[in-house]
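sry for the spam today, last one i promise. struct tokens for design, 233 residues
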């Protein structure tokens, strides 16, 4: 991303911090910054100087995009893309979407999600989920296992807890499925439990979403006192 685009991006994000009515204005301007056939990669200085957080998102094999944080409600964070797609995350988990082929509308029992409590190994979670294509109140059961892992950002290694979530429908799906079971993976920063990265498949047979909470990554690296060049990517 060139310097002009970075400046424009910072201006866009400054609008977000001042007024909730800037949704359309942000979306229109962001198209000029984010529209690219290749992966978006923001520099360290762009992330540090921004007024709002960034989230990297990749759907399946598509190019990686950057979404801007539009609103925060408790632990729920609403992210907006250049094409006005929306993801809502709760402690790193996608709980609502707008702009996918079959949007996720609702997830129940979020307070019991083990991701929030860091008591993950051999834990379980049951919730009901609604999708736009006509599946409502579908019960999903998850089991969790953990292992130690490392991720690398800006050439620095970060110690993480890798959480493997195995999901399964408790009731038959409305559509033909080849597999009723699938997996999500979350990488949590080892000390704080903050989700830094995830691979989430909202239903079996759909493309996975890879999320990198790059602003949270930068905050972690700063807390560790690590040197990072301003133009590092």
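last one done:
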């Amino acid at each position: 991303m060139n310097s002009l685009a970075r400046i424009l991006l910072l201006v866009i994000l400054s609008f977000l911090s001042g007024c909730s009515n800037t949704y359309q204005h942000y979306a229109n301007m962001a198209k000029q910054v984010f529209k690219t056939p290749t992966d978006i990669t923001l520099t360290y200085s762009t992330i540090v100087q921004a007024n709002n957080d960034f989230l990297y998102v990749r759907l399946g094999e598509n190019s990686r995009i950057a979404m801007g944080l539009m609103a925060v409600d408790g632990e729920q964070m609403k992210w907006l893309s250049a094409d006005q797609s929306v993801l809502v995350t709760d402690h790193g988990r996608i709980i609502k979407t707008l702009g996918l082929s079959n949007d996720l509308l609702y997830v129940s029992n979020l307070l019991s999600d083990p991701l929030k409590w860091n008591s993950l190994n051999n834990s379980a979670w049951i919730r009901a989920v609604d999708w736009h294509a006509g599946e409502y109140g579908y019960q999903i059961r998850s089991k969790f296992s953990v292992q130690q892992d490392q991720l690398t950002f800006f050439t620095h290694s970060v110690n993480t807890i890798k959480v493997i979530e195995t999901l399964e429908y408790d009731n038959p799906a409305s559509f033909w499925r080849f597999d009723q079971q699938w997996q999500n993976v979350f990488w949590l920063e080892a000390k704080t439990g903050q989700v830094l990265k995830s691979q989430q498949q909202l239903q079996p047979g759909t493309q996975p979403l890879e999320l990198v909470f790059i602003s949270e990554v930068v905050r972690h690296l700063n807390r560790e006192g690590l040197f990072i060049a301003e133009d590092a990517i």
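The longest strand covers residues 138-153. ok im logging off now
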